[in-house]
Amino acid sequence: MLRLPSLTSLAYFEVAARTRSFAAAAKELNVTPAAISHQIKALEEYLGVELFVRHHRRVSLTPAAREALPDLREGFQALEQAVEKIRSHGDERLIVTVCAEPLFATKWIVPRLHRFYAICPDAEVRLQASLQTVDRARDSAFGAADLKRAGIDVSVRLGYGHYADIEPERLMGLTLVPMCAPALARNVTGAESLHTLPLLRDGTLDRFGEACGWKEWFRQQGSESGGLRELRFGNGLLAQEAALAGQGVLLGVPELHQAELTAGTLEQVSDRSLDCEQAYFVASAGPGEERPIAGQFREWLLGEVHQPA
């Protein structure tokens, strides 16, 4: 059998060739540009052919690289399909990997998981929490290749629902209302009284291109939004803990704090809400492309939106 170069160097070449940039390839593969350059150089030495012409801030393909690239892409696709076929016969056929932002994963998915296991008792849900599931731009470059690369079957994304080659399904909207600990709630007599209190900010919402927070809430109430004392936290879980400790008023999604609101450890202090343009979406390879267990989890997730926790 013909001796082939390493799959790593071929994969780095494919991404670099597609993006026409070692820096962009490094970002996509979560490595350093130096690692990309090293692998490409090793591949060129192995093949005895230059693959890229190096310019000041970019690279271009040589004729040899341009000719080989389509076949290489087709080869990787065939390899991925073969691996999936093998996996479908093993124990991993019942493993589904799911990713969502920390607050949603912890406060919405986890309390409901027992119901999924009730209908799929042999399944194993591997739940991950990451802020990478929050879209920074209205038109995201996120697509099916990103799911495969990260080994994610189902991603609950917070954003606008516009993706490269995925048709997401809307799970629930992003509606924010003020809430805080009972002791602090006694000091809230209306929208204006909130100006005098510390306001907790979930930094997750700062990742959006369009702002969605306290200033927008006050503006919607026709109130001045200057001079606010905002305490920013890196994610919704941290902001919730601060609210429970009585450190300020949180602008949160009631469905994600339902346990605390029901137990009385948090109280909603205004019925005036801020309806954001962003929402939670379920993204996967989709019917016909996803593994059966991933499809089952996706359908279950969409059905759960109508059920209490």
UniProtKB/TrEMBL annotation:
Do the record's keywords include Membrane? no
Which PROSITE patterns does this chain map to?
HTH_LYSR (PS50931)
Q: Which residues form the HTH lysR-type domain?
A: 5-62
Return the SUPFAM superfamilies for the record: Periplasmic binding protein-like II, Winged helix' DNA-binding domain
A single MF term (Gene Ontology)? sequence-specific DNA binding
For this UniProt record, the keywords arranged alphabetically read as follows: DNA-binding, Transcription, Transcription regulation
- Give the species: Aquisalimonas asiatica
Q: Which GO terms describe its biological process?
A: DNA-templated transcription
The record's section on Pfam families has:
HTH_1 (PF00126), LysR_substrate (PF03466)
**Name by which UniProt lists this protein:** LysR family transcriptional regulator, glycine cleavage system transcriptional activator
Q: Does the keyword Repeat apply?
A: no
Q: Which family does it belong to?
A: Belongs to the LysR transcriptional regulatory family.
Cross-referenced Gene3D superfamilies, in alphabetical order?
A: Periplasmic binding protein-like II (3.40.190.10), Winged helix-like DNA-binding domain superfamily/Winged helix DNA-binding domain (1.10.10.10)
